[in-house]
Amino acid sequence: MEFISPNPFTSFIFYIFITCAIIIIAYTCNFYYLAFLSGRRKENQDTISIGEPTVTIHLPIYNEKYVTKRLINSICDLDYPKQKMCIMVLDDSDDSTTEQIAELVENYKGKGFDISHVRRGTRQGYKAG
After folding, report:
1. What letter does residue 84 receive in the DSSP assignment?
2. pTM for the whole structure
3. How many alpha carbons fall within 13 Å on the CB side of residue 115?
């Protein structure tokens, strides 16, 4: 019986096939190992519920008398606890908007909201607030 030496190209293809098979087997083993580890995690991990955080809402306003009432009303109508919400109306208006804001702020303060009207005398180099 005579031994036939393999073609070099056939040997090269065979080694590439074996290398790819080893890589696929390694990735498959890694996948199942990670799936096993994720299944071992504690199911009853205790979570601390702190509720809603306290937030401060800034409303910069400058001469917007047609928008102000709707804006403040919609902020105060948010589905969020009043005790966890601080509203600051930052007003630099030089028209009748200031009086309208002051009236709305007093109204909502009477309803238990933490709302304040911050007014600046001059408007030099800054936006409202």
Report:
1. G
2. 0.58
3. 21
